[in-house]
Amino acid sequence: MTEWVVLDIEGTLSATDQVLVVLYDYARPRLGPWIDGHGDDPVVAEAVRQIRELSGVDGVTDELVRVLHGWMDADQKVTPLKTLQGLIWQQGYADGDLVAEFFPDVVPALRKWHEDGVKLAVFSSGSVAGQVAFFGHTAEGDLRGLFEHHFDTVNAGPKREAASYRAIAAVLGSDDITFYSDVPAELHAAAEAGWRTVGVARPGEPYGDADFSPHRTVSAL
């Protein structure tokens, strides 16, 4: 038994296409209108500032959107993009346009861990706002109550750096943590930080045939 289980989302709990196709396609045409319609939101204003700083583009909204679409096409985990996507998805879930779906084994495993007293947290490149909305509007109902913490690249750091996992451990106040992910590089970083690790090799997913050694590997939770 472990005190904490920390979970990746994309490719681990939910199919990659759920993010790269369904969610990305939903966000893509809404980025420009969201920037223009929420210019007085300090979170959006900061995201726009970061886009300009990172890209060197100092033009109108259409030019910023072209930068964001380029990042999306390359599946780059860029903080201001994740921030804006998270806000758009949050609204999409609230409006009933989006419903989160999981691999069949996921929700039973989450509920079993929770019932057994294992504490659950999430570490995903998607923003905390997007994560909370995701788990709040699922085909299995509202699952937010199963999780005690959410971490992203803003409040923890890059997913392939050991320092991020040390930062999470400090917040959790524990060194008894097991991390589940479908990305070997993330598992390597977590192991370097002293965590237990489990590789999730889902058939048909981008990392389904990856080399997960030396991590314990499963095909379902």
From TrEMBL:
<comment type="subunit">
    <text>Monomer.</text>
</comment>
<comment type="similarity">
    <text>Belongs to the HAD-like hydrolase superfamily. MasA/MtnC family.</text>
</comment>
<keyword id="KW-0486">Methionine biosynthesis</keyword>
<protein>
    <recommendedName>
        <fullName>Enolase-phosphatase E1</fullName>
        <ecNumber>3.1.3.77</ecNumber>
    </recommendedName>
</protein>
<comment type="pathway">
    <text>Amino-acid biosynthesis; L-methionine biosynthesis via salvage pathway; L-methionine from S-methyl-5-thio-alpha-D-ribose 1-phosphate: step 3/6.</text>
</comment>
<comment type="function">
    <text>Bifunctional enzyme that catalyzes the enolization of 2,3-diketo-5-methylthiopentyl-1-phosphate (DK-MTP-1-P) into the intermediate 2-hydroxy-3-keto-5-methylthiopentenyl-1-phosphate (HK-MTPenyl-1-P), which is then dephosphorylated to form the acireductone 1,2-dihydroxy-3-keto-5-methylthiopentene (DHK-MTPene).</text>
</comment>
<dbReference type="InterPro" id="IPR036412">
    <property type="entry name" value="HAD-like_sf"/>
</dbReference>
<dbReference type="GO" id="GO:0043716">
    <property type="term" value="F:2-hydroxy-3-keto-5-methylthiopentenyl-1-phosphate phosphatase activity"/>
</dbReference>
<dbReference type="GO" id="GO:0019509">
    <property type="term" value="P:L-methionine salvage from methylthioadenosine"/>
</dbReference>
<dbReference type="GO" id="GO:0000287">
    <property type="term" value="F:magnesium ion binding"/>
</dbReference>
<keyword id="KW-0028">Amino-acid biosynthesis</keyword>
<dbReference type="GO" id="GO:0043874">
    <property type="term" value="F:acireductone synthase activity"/>
</dbReference>
<dbReference type="InterPro" id="IPR023943">
    <property type="entry name" value="Enolase-ppase_E1"/>
</dbReference>
<dbReference type="GO" id="GO:0043715">
    <property type="term" value="F:2,3-diketo-5-methylthiopentyl-1-phosphate enolase activity"/>
</dbReference>
<comment type="pathway">
    <text>Amino-acid biosynthesis; L-methionine biosynthesis via salvage pathway; L-methionine from S-methyl-5-thio-alpha-D-ribose 1-phosphate: step 4/6.</text>
</comment>
<keyword id="KW-0378">Hydrolase</keyword>
<keyword id="KW-0460">Magnesium</keyword>
<keyword id="KW-0479">Metal-binding</keyword>
<dbReference type="Pfam" id="PF00702">
    <property type="entry name" value="Hydrolase"/>
</dbReference>
<dbReference type="InterPro" id="IPR023214">
    <property type="entry name" value="HAD_sf"/>
</dbReference>
